[in-house]
Amino acid sequence: MSDPHAVESLAALEALYGAAVPGSLLKVRRDIDAPSRDFIARSPFCILSTRGADGAVHGTPRGDAPGFVTVLSGTELALPDRRGNNRIDALRDIVGDPQVALLFLIPGVGETLRVAGRGTITTDPALCARLAEQGKAPATVLRIAVEEVFFQCARALLRSGLWGDTPRPAGVPTAGQFLKSATAGAFDAETYDREAPARLAANLY
C-alpha cells in the first residue's frame, strides 16, 4: 500500500527530529566498561536480534539466572544456547550473517543496555563446560565480538509501566554512572541521577 506521507530519506527524517541529544552520542563505547560489565552480570534476560543472509530478521528472547551471558574480555561476550524447540532461527541467521545485537533488561530497572557486534557459533568443549547449568552443557555457545555498547534511557520502560511497582535492585549502575565512565570520570553523575526523575517525567511525551 502506498503512503504519500512516507519518510524515504535521511534528510527528511532528520528534519522531523532535529539534532541528537549530546549525551546520547557521548555514551557510546567500543568496549565493555565496568558499568556495562556489572549490568550484564545482573541481567537475567536479553533479546538477541539477528538477520540472515536471505534478509529475514528475528528477535529472540534469551534468559537464565542473572549473569548467564558471560563477559570473556573487554570486547567479547559468551551467550550459551539453552535447550529449546530446535528451530534455531537466530543461529541459522548468524551462519549467514554474523551481525548481531543484544538488548539487556533487569526487572525494576528503567535503563537497558544495548550491545552490537559480530557473532561466532562455537562448540568449544571448555567453554561449553564452563557455561553448563544444572549439569547440562549448551549444545553451542555464541561468542560475540563487541563493536558498540551503550545504555538506553528509561523513557520507554517508564511509559510502558513494564515493571509496575517492582523496586530497583540496589547497586545496579545508573545512567549517570554510565556517562561518568564514558568520560573517564569527568561527568557529574550524582547531579545527573538526582535530577533524572523530574527530567524524565517532563520529557516522556
TrEMBL record:
UniProt domain Pyridoxamine 5'-phosphate oxidase N-terminal: residue ranges: 37-153
Q: What Pfam families does the database record attribute to this sequence?
A: PNPOx_N
Q: What is this protein called?
A: Pyridoxamine 5'-phosphate oxidase family protein
User: What organism, scientifically named, is this protein from?
Assistant: Falsiroseomonas frigidaquae
